Amino acid sequence: MRAFAEGHVRDAMTLFQESYRAGGPPTELWNVARCQLKLDDPEAARATLQEYLAKKGLSPQDRAEAQRLLDDLERRPSPFVVASTPAGAMVSVDGHVWGMTPYTGTLPPGEHDVDVGGSSKHVEARGGRMVVVSVRLGSVESRSSHKKHARHMKRFWAELAALATISSLGGGAAVDVVPAPEIGLGFAPFDFRKSRIGFGVRVRAEYDTWTTSAGVSNATTLGCTPPSDYSAVELLAMPTMFGDWLVSKNVALGARIGFGAAIYISGSPIAGDLFAPACAYGGSLAPDGYASLDVSVRLNDDFRLVFPATFDVHTAYVGTRNDASIDASGPWMRFGLGVALAVDL
What we know:
8-stranded antiparallel beta barrel; elongated; Immunoglobulin-like; 4-stranded antiparallel sheet; 46% strand
């Protein structure tokens, strides 16, 4: 302990190890681990702490403190150094641009794909151990071409989704819903290591069918008789802001929020349980709010599978019913789950 306090850490570690081999208590392993951390050997400290935690008879306080230190080691970022010959190559980690060589920074724990001017390396950051990547590159022209190509690939995407939705229309009305197609386009100008932020637009078509309940009056007084069954296509268009975060090499979590408009597109009368009887299209434009969460799984460099959970709400259309039998005049809400195929352009 005196050697450790005086800064002779390597001597102290040797003495602690000899003490433990001579029959000293398990706490000597704890002291060895602290010396290894002082000597910047996190891998050895990790192994020593695991050996210490395997011992029986540790007090709850000692076990908790050792586990906390081991967890801190597992989460410790690693110094990250990238060099290239010649210098000036773009450094990308897991598909996100980090800078240019020579580059110095930190790397989160885990496995990563590092691209340096077109040369790819797979590395693992563990226990705070330094990660060094050094590559020899070809001509400046080939690096420049790759840089432009990679930057173009990561900025734009297009998505085609199929959603199954559950609707609550005004709180008292319901419709039968079939799977709804949705198209999304996006552009991500802001890139921050494992996350990106951008904007886009989404367009969805909902095909709704409903009927006239018994006792609902028709429009014979207007000189026409609306049908008993109704259908219409609702079109929703939403400009959005989005962000996503890469949680592993091929999996990302995303969120979107937007504000747009919804409208029923129909060539037949809209009436019955949702609308007052009429002989012509009585829909209107309604402001629509949109939000979604999704999980994205990369299939290859170009394609991803996306699993979204969506929610949108808009005010009731003009002419919705509000009487003793049906009230469709409250907020119209739709919840959806689905799958989408996305392509990075």
